[in-house]
# Entry
Amino acid sequence: MKEMHQRVVVGITSHNRPDSIVQAVDAITKQTYPSNLIEVVIADDASDDPLMPQAFSDVEKKLKEAKMGYKLFINGNH
# Structure
C-alpha cells in the first residue's frame, strides 16, 4: 500500500534571533518527510539586529536548495 503524506506548514516567529532562524531551518531541511510537502513560514517583527538580513538570505538559499515552499514576512527595518 502506498503511504500518503499530508502537507505540513512550519511556522517560525522571530525578533533579533538570526542564529535561531538559521538553526531551525537547517533542522527542517534535514527531515526525511517529503520536502515538496513542507512549507516554511517565517515571520519577523521589526528586528534591528544587523545580522538579520544575512540570516534571511541564508535561510532563503537553504529552502530553495531543499525545494521547500516558503514565505518570509519581514516587518520593519529590512
In short: The chain has two helices and three strands.
